[in-house]
Write a structure and sequence with these properties.
Blueprint lengths: L5 E7 L12 E6 L5 H8 L18 E6 L3 E5 L10 H17 L3 E9 L6 H13 L3 E6 L9 H12 L7 E3 L8 H8 L4
The structure holds guanosine-5'-triphosphate and magnesium ion (MG).
The site of guanosine-5'-triphosphate has 24 residues, from helix 1.
């Protein structure tokens, strides 16, 4: 899919500011620094629409990116940034929970996991939360460019075995850096728009 005019609609700091247009929302979740904001930029071929940083904890608001008035990419703050104070982390977690809990127009959740590491406690909690929500989701193992291409498929399988031993959900590799898997991901996303 080609997005002609992607734009930030609102950087929400409270649920009162969520858009009211009713468009479907594809939401990015994952730990801090895993590449949620980069994912959005890569999918739409823009370098800087969503703010990224090598320092974790960049995204503190809930950013709604309007994609040609067809759907939103929703960029959530990351969880598990160890240098953030406990109080600040609690605030972020509450903000994430609130969005996932009350928002009715979520059409797909994309959970990003770093392909280089086993899913951590926070990832497992988020995965369980998503399963219990009953919402459609997709797991992307990001930063695939950081490991040998010959190891990518097996590493994705290993991550899936930890989170989803039965293997009945979709886990795929991704690289926001090289874009090699973005066509495969678009063909899935199109079903939810
Ligand atoms: N090599 C590589 N680097 C990546 C990839 N995706 C993201 N990065 C880098 O990882 C860092 C964090 O990316 P962000 O997109 O800001 O991560 P985020 O999940 O939005 O982080 P928070 O907003 O802190 O939650 C940046 O330096 C990106 O350039 C990838 O697929 N490959
Ligand atoms: Mg971000």
């Amino acid at each position: 899919m080609i997005i002609k005019n992607p734009k930030i609609e609102i950087s929400a700091t409270s649920s009162k500011q969520y858009p009211t247009s009713g468009l479907p929302e594809i939401v990015l979740v994952g730990k801090s620094n895993v590449g949620k904001s980069s994912f959005i930029n890569t999918m739409i071929n823009r370098k800087k629409l969503a703010r990224t940083s090598s320092e974790p904890g960049k995204t503190r608001q809930i950013n709604f990116y309007n994609m040609d008035d067809k759907f939103y990419f929703v960029d959530l703050p990351g969880y598990g940034y160890s240098k953030m104070s406990k109080v600040e982390q609690e605030k972020v977690n509450h903000f994430i929970d609130e969005y996932l809990h009350i928002r009715k127009n979520i059409s797909l959740i994309i959970l990003l996991i770093d392909i280089r590491h086993e899913p951590g406690t926070n990832d497992k909690m988020m995965y369980d939360y998503i399963i219990h929500s009953g919402l459609p989701f997709l797991v992307l193992c990001n930063k695939a460019d950081k490991i040998a291409i010959t190891k990518v498929q097996n590493t994705v399988k290993d991550i899936q075995k930890i989170l989803n031993p039965i293997g009945d959900f979709t886990f795929m590799p991704f690289s926001a850096e090289t874009k090699i898997y973005s066509d495969d991901v678009w063909s899935i996303l199109e079903k939810y728009i």
